[in-house]
């Protein structure tokens, strides 16, 4: 186990009896959020940092569980004592989003009105809804202002949304490998993935829980599609090239190339622990996010209300959310006269670079966070 790990952690649960009215028009009359914390909240409660997770992430950001030591947090290389987000200085919070499948109220949860899992009846949720729920959790924890809100990919969208929904409650935003809205190509990828799930015979309109099955095939295909977009062509070529699984062609539609074997493995593994309805809801939340929409597409005008300082990072080979998308954010912030720093990191790893321990990337975040007052 890494010496600088936050060590053994335990998820916590907060129950909310106040109804949450969602942007879609739906209402959750009662809901729960699962979260983890690392480090200590100082007496003035000025050192809290919220980490927002991406599509398949969760509240388990760092450390490991006593009864499951191999279950290490998804950003463990980033959060901990001496790491870029240093828990000797900051009190870090990770929250599983509503609609998730790691304990927060989601499609697998019991609908109090029917006594059965929500399934297809779980309402659509948006990035803005997640931020609203996170703000309520912060209220319960006595945190009126975050020193920083940080996120990569979909997590970056949440970080940006914090600056717009609660400008007075966040001092710094770190938006990493993210975008102000999806392109048509990105929406198309999400749609193909959703169709893979929706057309699975075991999907049962989203109510597969009552049949004791999961749309495993569809979820597997959805993950394979997504996984291709998280990697760069260079990273795939370097790792797999055209290497053959069996040393020679077998002239079949079974696995011939190593890359096929890898994708099938990743898809099958994902289908064992992730929930199909959560995948559908989360990709739709990605599609819907567009903070400039209510300002006629003017992102600079949308950012006019922000009070935070921004640090925007992108990765050279990220074609899912390319550096050009990050520069859109930076340009809008500059035009709205907001303080912003921007860095494009040279990396071969594509979109998933933000999850990796890249020396330049980590050094840049560490340097930025070192100057954040608490």
Automatic annotation (TrEMBL):
Keyword set includes Endoplasmic reticulum: no
GO biological process per UniProt: homoserine metabolic process; methionine biosynthetic process
Alphabetical list of Pfam families matching this protein: Abhydrolase_1
Keywords of this entry: Acyltransferase, Amino-acid biosynthesis, Cytoplasm, Methionine biosynthesis, Transferase
GO cellular component: a single term: cytoplasm
InterPro entries cross-referenced by the UniProt entry: AB_hydrolase_1 (IPR000073), AB_hydrolase_fold (IPR029058), HAT_MetX-like (IPR008220)
Domain AB hydrolase-1: 47-356
EC number assigned by the record: 2.3.1.46
Keyword Amino-acid biosynthesis attributed: yes
Domain of life the protein comes from: Bacteria
SUPFAM superfamilies: alpha/beta-Hydrolases (SSF53474)
Location in the cell: Cytoplasm
Site (Important for acyl-CoA specificity): 320
Principal EC category: transferase
Region forming the signal peptide: none
Catalytic activity: L-homoserine + succinyl-CoA = O-succinyl-L-homoserine + CoA
Function: Transfers a succinyl group from succinyl-CoA to L-homoserine, forming succinyl-L-homoserine.
PANTHER family: HOMOSERINE O-ACETYLTRANSFERASE
Family: Belongs to the AB hydrolase superfamily. MetX family.
Subunit structure: Homodimer.
HAMAP family associated with the record: MetX_acyltransf
NCBIfam families to which the protein is assigned, alphabetical: homoserO_Ac_trn, PRK00175.1
Designated name of the protein: Homoserine O-succinyltransferase
Gene behind this protein: metX
